[in-house]
Amino acid sequence: MLGKKLVTAQKRGETRALCLGLGMVACSMMMYFFIGITIVPFYTKSVWTAETMCKVLKANINDKVLCANSEGSEDEDIFPYPCLQVWVNLTASGQEVMLYQTEDTLERNPKCSYVPNKSDNSKEVKARIETIASNFKKYQTFPCYYDPGGTQTNVILSRLYPPKGLLFAFLWPTLMFTGGCLIIALVKISQYFSVLSAWQ
After folding, report:
1. pLDDT value of residue 3
2. 21 and 183 Cβ atoms separated by less than 8 Å
3. 82, 110, 107: which is closest to 97 by C-alpha?
4. Distance separating alpha carbons of residues 43 and 160, to the nearest angstrom
5. How many of the other CB atoms lie within 10 Å of CB of 30?
6. For residue 11, how far is the Cα from the chain centroid?
7. Rounded Cα distance, 23 and 21, in Å
8. Which of 25, 105, 124, 135 has the CB geometry, 3.0–4.6 Å to 180, for a possible disulfide?
9. How many angstroms separate the CA atoms of 179 and 187, rounded?
10. Going by DSSP bridges, is the β-strand pair 155-156/96-100 parallel, antiparallel, or unpaired?
11. What does the DSSP 8-state code read for residue 120?
12. C-alpha angle with apex 102: 96 to 107, nearest 5 degrees?
């Protein structure tokens, strides 16, 4: 009687472990799919792949401009803010080009180097932009990214999804997939030895 209970408990444990392993594999595949349709296209579309040094030539704050809203966005997404324009000397080619914060900044408003998030407090936005401008004037030489193919003549300060960020994004689903496969393999090995011992 005790033997039957032990066998039943063992089978239930194996079933739960197998479900856990399959669930981990399924979740990791969903994460791979999500990363593949969200992060990977932004990474492959970016042409600013080469790193060089940039030296600030001028950093000016112009009058307020309207945030250029993307297609399909509502009118309420448009908001005024001071336009910071940073021009740098590109070490790789010696050209005078405009600097943008990220690839997204260029798409949102090509006239400004920095596009703040929407805020009801215009004083905070103005103070933040003035702080950024003073930092550029203080730290005049810094690494930046440019397009080695020459299709984009401007440069960006940082990439939205650098190679390290992409590898980090794939790290967790890879660990989950490996753990799920390991659990499934251990359950199958346990079942194999159980059948083998039963035959003996």
Report:
1. 47
2. yes
3. 110
4. 8
5. 11
6. 42
7. 5
8. 25
9. 12
10. parallel
11. S
12. 90
Give the CA distances from residue 171 to residues 31, 58, 82, 164, in Å, rounded to whole numbers and listed in that order: 11, 40, 39, 10
Mean pLDDT of all residues in 136-161 = 88
Are residues 33 and 90 in contact, defined by beta-carbon separation less than 8 angstroms?
no
Query: Per-domain residue ranges for the chain?
Result: 50-161, 163-199
Q: Is 139 helix (H, G, I), strand (E, B) or coil?
A: coil
Give me the pLDDT at residue 55, please.
92
DSSP secondary structure, 152-191, as one string: --SEESS-SS-HHHHHHHHHHHHHHHHHHHHHHHHHHHHH
- Could you tell me how many residues make up the chain? 200
Compute the distance between CA of residue 169 and CA of residue 184 in angstroms, rounded to an integer.
Answer: 24
Instruction: Quote the CA–CA distance of 62 and 106 in Å, as a whole number.
Output: 17
For residue 28, the SS3 value is helix
- Averaged pLDDT score across all residues of the chain: 82
Among 8, 31, 15, which residue's Cα sits nearest to residue 175?
31
Cα–Cα distance list, 15 to 22, 122, 184 (Å): 10, 59, 10
Q: State pLDDT tens for residues 50-109.
A: 898 999 998 888 876 656 544 444 445 567 888 899 999 987 677 899 999 998 898 888
> Of 119, 101, 118, whose CA–CA distance to 110 is shortest?
101
**Signed CA dihedral, 95, 99, 103, 108: sign only:** negative
Q: Residue 116 in contact with residue 108, Cβ under 8 Å?
A: no
